[in-house]
């Protein structure tokens, strides 16, 4: 069985490499391509006003990457500012970018890696009258911002990047054709509903009734079932957990 990692390439290859190190036949087929936001001015304005916020929430590692790329020369992370990350990859990038670990909020160990789990950490705090900056992709989810607003926070959304339909090269196209032709020989790792939607666009005639996938959130599981996948398991995006699932399937 071959495992197909569908995250954007910058995150897909490290995960695939960890799976290969665990003896899993893993390859990458990014179903989302990450590009710079159409307008960089909001990012520059966010850096200029960063000291006015109580919390900066980064929805993904891509949000960290593009926000930090827009950092003005000599700009530093304001010491009182909290940063929030929905998962360990995003948190690791924030620490590498200079965010003090003591000012970082992320889901508790063992919790899911998503906005809902992160909210369980943030809801314990006082938000009335506080300003929150949410760095996300264009047209990202508003759910966490809505929770903060319901507690009295002023929430500003800034698009740090955009997600686009990838253009498949010859190798990627061949891999997609093989997975569609021999669905029982492949296991898909899908980490966003948008990736599932892009798979439909890239292979509109494919029949996934005999295909299997794993996803880290019930929302994505539902999207894959709607796409026609016959078997979808809810598994966190963690190399050890994913490798255990693959081994259980006899890969």
Question: Main attributes?
Answer:
Rossmann fold, 2 domains, 39% helix, 251 residues, single chain, alpha/beta, 6-stranded mixed β-sheet
Overview of the molecule:
By secondary structure, the protein is α/β, with parallel strands linked by helices. The chain has 2 domains: 2-32 and 168-248, Rossmann fold, CATH 3.40.50.10090; 35-163, 3-Layer(aba) Sandwich (Rossmann fold). The chain is 39% helix and 20% strand. The chain has helices at 9-21, 41-48, 61-69, 88-96, 115-122, 143-150, 170-181, 193-202, 218-227, 239-248, and strands at 2-5, 26-28, 33-36, 55-58, 82-84, 104-105, 131-137, 154-164, 186-189, 212-215, 231-234. Helix 8 (193-202) links the parallel strand 9 and strand 10 (212-215). The model has no long low-confidence stretch (mean pLDDT 92).
């Amino acid at each position: 069985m071959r495992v197909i990692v569908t995250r954007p390439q910058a995150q897909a290859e490290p995960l695939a490499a960890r799976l290969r190190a665990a003896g899993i036949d893993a390859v990458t087929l990014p179903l989302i391509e990450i590009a710079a936001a159409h307008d960089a001015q909001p990012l520059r304005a966010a850096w200029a006003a960063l000291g006015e916020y109580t919390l900066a929430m980064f929805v993904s590692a891509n949000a960290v990457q593009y926000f930090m790329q827009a950092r003005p020369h000599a700009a530093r992370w304001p010491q009182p500012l909290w940063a929030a990350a929905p998962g360990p990859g995003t948190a690791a990038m924030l620490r590498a970018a200079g965010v003090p670990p003591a000012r970082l909020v992320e889901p508790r160990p063992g919790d899911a890696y998503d906005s809902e789990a992160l909210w369980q950490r943030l809801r314990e705090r006082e938000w009335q009258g506080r300003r929150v900056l949410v760095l996300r992709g264009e047209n990202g989810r508003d759910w966490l911002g809505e929770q903060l607003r319901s507690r009295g926070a002023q929430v500003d959304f800034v698009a740090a990047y955009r997600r686009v339909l990838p253009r498949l090269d010859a190798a990627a196209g061949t891999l997609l054709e093989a997975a569609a032709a021999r669905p029982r020989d492949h296991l898909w790792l899908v980490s966003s509903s948008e990736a599932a939607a892009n798979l439909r666009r890239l292979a509109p005639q494919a029949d996934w009734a005999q295909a299997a996938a794993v996803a880290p959130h019930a929302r994505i599981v539902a999207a894959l079932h709607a796409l026609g996948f016959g078997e979808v398991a809810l598994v966190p995006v963690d190399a050890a957990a994913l490798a255990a699932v693959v081994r259980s399937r006899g890969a």
